[in-house]
# Entry
Amino acid sequence: MNRVLAWATARRAAGAAGWRGTDALFRGAVGGLGLVGAGVVLHRVDLVLLGAPLLLGTVLALAAPVGAVPVVRAERLPSTVEAGDRGRLAVRVEAGPGVEFMAVRLPVPGAQGIGPVHLVPGAARELRASLRWNAWGEGLDLRPDHLAAGRDALVISGPVVGHEARRTVLPPVEPLRPGPLPPRAAGLVGAHRSPRPGDGTELRAIRPFQPGDRVRRVDWRVSLRAGAAAGELLAPGTLHVRERHAEADADLLLVIDSRVDVSANLSDWSTATARAVRTRGSLDATVRATASLAAAYLRQGDRVGLVDLGRPQLGIGAGVGHRQLARVRHQLVACSRSAGWAPQPVLLPRQVPAGAVVVLLSPFLDDAVADTTIRTARRGHAVVAVDMLPTPLVPDPEAEWGAVVAQVITAEHRARTAALRSNGVLVVTGVDGVAAVLRRVRGRR
Amino acid sequence: MTDGLDVGRGVSAGLLRAVVAVVCAGIVADLALNRASVVVLGAAVLLSVACVFLPASPAPLLLIALAALLITVSGPDPLRPAVLVLVPLVHLLHINCAIGALLPKGARLDPRALWPAARRVAVVQLVVAALAVLAMVIPAGRTPEPVELIALLSIAGLAAVVIVLDRSR
# Structure
């Protein structure tokens, strides 16, 4: 039985591989010949006139040989692009002169996905299409499925499913003013002023010379003034040196909550979306904010790491530079690809470097995430909670208790943020507020 | 030959279905004007709907056969306006259904793709119009038997040509 099935499948595949006639060929040939034949036999000129266009058209169409099976090849595009980028796609078509129509699936600029099928002239050897990647994320944006047809579409080849081209569109980086971070206790390089003396540029104090001080640090103007006051130049105790602050780096740990992705409309919360991430949802906003924060602080020279509360294995350690920014943005796409509910958010002590500032972005819709945030703050870290819940919440108009549900969710959320504040967590509602809050933290320390 | 083609948004391929709908409406109107019965008109309307939504089905062929049968039995004059109007309508129905059957829902269409087919339709219609004029000029009467034999052999020859061309691709 299996052999028969395999044989039938192979026959069907072989039949579909090359050129084959369509219903139109049958209609043109059988209908045309039938009408003309019936007209001749019955001596009816009207039947001959009705059948003649079908028959003539079929003969004219079949007179042009279609040649070999057409081949469609799409040119390669970069596998990683920036959100908002534009691209130009070229698809090469190798087809015989008898091919009159090509139906090729090509993307449409500004639209998501692989696009509709376009019917284009079969004589075109290169099809060019514009692409624009608006939405960040990972997805399929090109699959040149194609079908070739001869004259009057009497014979066709295909349809053939094209090679899929997947692309990662990195989340956009919006310009953000970074704030100062509390420097780490250790480290000799960085952009932040350390309270310790060191080799930085910022003046810390002018003090009397001590054994071990470098001569180039001597402040001659102060020393001479001190000598003049003492009545003797270079008398003991008159030599003064300029002491500078050390410069230290700082760690910023960005923590995202990919367990929930909600929009302002409560009616959408329980419905699945076609995309992995809701447009203008909390996860979309979180990823954009995280990419912007990472870019701003990495540009400043700080070390930035990433943790996903729902998928701890997807976190990346702290690092610096452009490469780290690329890693963070790629990882954000990976986190959103595997986003989904996890009952327990995970932020282990070993994931948070000593002295690091933790910026935790979440809609704070469950107590577990609030507990995790408070626990991290109690370990001695400066924690900034960025509230990503879209506001104001719109009640479900079709639900009888829609307005009440919205009020309960809002009240619970307010209680959670109040609990965070009372436990020393700094809560801000937008990513723009992070810099100001960090400045306050820095001032306190 | 076109080297490169910029594929834009094009026009909706629903345009082809719309043309099929208009052509089918023309055929149904032609049948109605020839005093077709309600049952036949109902069948023609059903077939028309099938032509619009299922262009790759036998519906177009059945509609063409129905129209041809009805027009033949409805009057003795083979070159009356009802027949002459039906000739291009049948041809347009055939071509539009053939091309429309290639495209899935939501497809787009570059109008330049239709030009070669449109030119061929025009040529074929000119030839058929010349045949009609010839049929008007030739005096009606009994056809000599040798001519009938030649006509039947010509049809057989055309059938052979179609088969050979179809096999030679």
Notes: Chain A is about 35% helix and 25% strand. The CA atoms of residues 3 and 288 of chain A lie 55 Å apart. The first strand of chain A starts at residue 19 and ends at 21.
